[in-house]
Amino acid sequence: MTIPTVTLNDGTTIPQLGYGVFRVPPADTERAVAEAFEVGYRHIDTAAIYGNEEGVGAAIAASGIPRDELYITTKLWNDRHDGEEPHAAIAESLEKLGLDRVDLYLVHWPTPAADNYVHAWQKMIEIQDAGLARSIGVSNHLVPHLERVVAETGVVPAVDQIELHPAYQQREVTDWASAHGVKIESWGPLGQGKYDLFGAEPVAAAAAAHGKTPAQAVLRWHLQKGVIVFPKSVRRERLEENLDVFDFELSDAEIDAIDALDPGDGSGRVSAHPDEVD
Length: 278
Hints:
Layout: E1 5-7, E2 13-15, E3 19-20, H1 26-39, E4 43-45, H2 53-63, E5 71-76, H3 85-97, E6 102-107, H4 117-129, E7 133-139, H5 143-153, E8 159-163, H6 171-180, E9 183-187, H7 201-210, H8 214-224, E10 228-229, H9 236-243, H10 252-259
Parallel strand pairs: 3-4, 4-5, 5-6, 6-7, 7-8, 8-9, 9-10
Antiparallel strand pairs: 1-2
Helix pairs in contact: 1-2, 1-9, 2-3, 4-5, 7-8
């Protein structure tokens, strides 16, 4: 099985489906990532704040998989934006991961109340120039944040990783990203189980029509919309299920029906608003 790749605006490629370790307990991370590798994942998404970079690194070291076959993402936490802290933070993350570079480094949240996300982005550019990250991007950045970092640095992020699922599709952000060559990554692609996504008629109908689970139908919806996605699970059978989404295709009508699940008023958000995170 070959996982498709997406080409970023810096010319590098990223596997479109990966494995996210958000809320994977540190003690379970090495086993979970090792199982993900065994199942066929090669793209791992972690973050400094998750507290499990060491587990990811241990699994990488034990895997025997050539480094150039892996795609590793981590993120700069909110209290490391100022001064030279981003450089210290990436050094710490690389040590924990056992790597000399990551494939993608993200500013985790813009923390607009602190008004230092442009400075953080300037330091990310230095980190990329130093060869410590092949690609750099942002997470949870809304259009005003994106416009400002581009206007003040001239460098467009490669990706914006945002909350995105059928009830909350962030069309203002995704439209801006599409117009500016920024790829969208979805976190919480299945709504984090915080609403009855799988019971929604368009999802259930698409799953039944293709002999797939509702989760597989939703992941396929993301993939066909060009979104980079990395569902999280600590169960091997679910890891396998989430990867088994490349042998069917949703119709345009099925895509449109799932698209219509977003009420368009922002009420589908299941996590924090980026302007309120510090």
